[in-house]
């Protein structure tokens, strides 16, 4: 038997320090978001926008955008404006989702929700302000990227957040509340639009900014669709199994609102299996990218192991 000096075999994973990677990227994104919206007159609206935008969170969406842009041969500098815009859009969706007319939540990320601090009127306007500014920010701040790619990104963002994406998913979600016969197809529609569409845009926009070829864009899009649905399944599981302190928001809200969830249809064990299967399918889409895809692979695995 010959012993070689090479410790790595084809079966072994290349080590990747995800916590260090996330911390570095989070710091970069937090600083960029803080710079993006300075306080101006009328101060109240800028304060309300900043209150929710800078309230922490995992920042997975902008990180996915940066990681994909780098994987496809771009730089974080060319992707930062789009990454910030994605977080602005996501924050808008949280502010509006928490309103009494929607999910009626008092806490988000361990803090009082926007409307509890600023009132419903200002919360609605803060969300509107973030949504509008997201598109302005991409158009005005993206540097060293051909204009055609920037247009593609703006188009992709618009589709992800509109009636064909997040808004459409939210409508079906609201219409399904309290119904005992919500099918798995309807539930998939809700979350492919409400959750996965924006995650898909994060990945696709990063690839578009870097000029990724169409075949790579399709692979990365499938990766994002799979992790988007897995993310929602895990969210549904955590709503049952985690505490309010762990979640940073009210636990058990889905049950109280009589919402259809993956555990309510499949049960916990099958939901966990489905989430793992989706993550495995997502990682398989990254095979052709080699070690460049390690951040995206690690983020996919993190989705099913997270506790909040």
TrEMBL record:
Q: Which InterPro entries match?
A: GGPPSyn_CRT-like, Isoprenoid_synthase_dom_sf, Polyprenyl_synt, Polyprenyl_synt_CS, Prenyl_diphosphate_synthase
Q: Which GO terms describe its cellular component?
A: cytoplasm
Q: In which pathway does it act?
A: Isoprenoid biosynthesis; geranyl diphosphate biosynthesis; geranyl diphosphate from dimethylallyl diphosphate and isopentenyl diphosphate: step 1/1
Could you confirm whether the keyword Hydrolase appears in this record? Answer: no
Q: Which SUPFAM superfamilies match?
A: Terpenoid synthases
In the record, the note on similarity to other proteins reads: Belongs to the FPP/GGPP synthase family.
Mind listing the UniProt keywords for this protein, alphabetically? Isoprene biosynthesis, Magnesium, Metal-binding, Transferase
Give the protein name, as stated in the record.
dimethylallyltranstransferase
Record EC number:
2.5.1.1
Q: Which cofactor does it need?
A: Mg(2+)
Q: Does the keyword Metal-binding apply?
A: yes
Q: What Gene Ontology terms describe what this protein does at the molecular function level?
A: dimethylallyltranstransferase activity; metal ion binding
Catalytic activity reported: isopentenyl diphosphate + dimethylallyl diphosphate = (2E)-geranyl diphosphate + diphosphate
């Amino acid at each position: 038997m010959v012993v070689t000096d090479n410790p790595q075999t084809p079966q072994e994973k290349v080590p990747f320090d995800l916590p260090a990677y996330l911390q570095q990227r989070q710091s970069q994104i937090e600083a960029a978001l803080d710079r993006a919206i300075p306080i101006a007159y009328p101060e109240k609206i800028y304060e309300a926008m900043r209150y929710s935008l800078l309230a922490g969170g995992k920042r997975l969406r902008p990180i996915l955008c940066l990681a994909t842009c780098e994987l496809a041969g771009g730089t974080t500098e060319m992707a930062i404006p789009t990454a910030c815009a994605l977080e602005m859009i996501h924050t808008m969706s949280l502010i509006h989702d928490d309103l009494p007319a929607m999910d009626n939540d008092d806490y988000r990320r361990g803090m009082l929700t926007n409307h509890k601090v600023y009132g419903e009127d200002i919360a609605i306007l803060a969300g509107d302000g973030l949504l509008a500014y997201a598109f302005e920010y991409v158009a005005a701040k993206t540097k060293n990227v051909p204009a055609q790619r920037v247009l593609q990104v703006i188009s992709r963002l618009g589709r992800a957040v509109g009636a064909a994406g997040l808004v459409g998913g939210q409508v079906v979600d609201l219409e399904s509340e309290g119904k005992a016969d919500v099918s798995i197809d309807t539930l998939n529609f809700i979350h492919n639009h409400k959750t996965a569409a924006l995650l898909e845009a994060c990945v696709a926009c990063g690839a578009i900014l870097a000029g990724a070829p169409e075949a790579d864009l399709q692979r990365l899009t499938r990766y994002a669709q799979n992790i988007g649905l897995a993310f929602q399944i895990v969210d549904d599981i955590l709503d049952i199994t985690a505490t309010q302190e762990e979640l940073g928001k009210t636990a058990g809200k889905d049950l109280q609102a009589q919402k259809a969830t993956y555990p309510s249809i499949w049960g916990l064990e099958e939901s966990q299996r489905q989430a793992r299967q989706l993550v495995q399918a997502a990682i398989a889409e990254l095979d052709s990218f080699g070690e460049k895809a390690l951040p995206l692979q690690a983020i996919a695995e993190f989705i099913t192991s997270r506790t909040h």
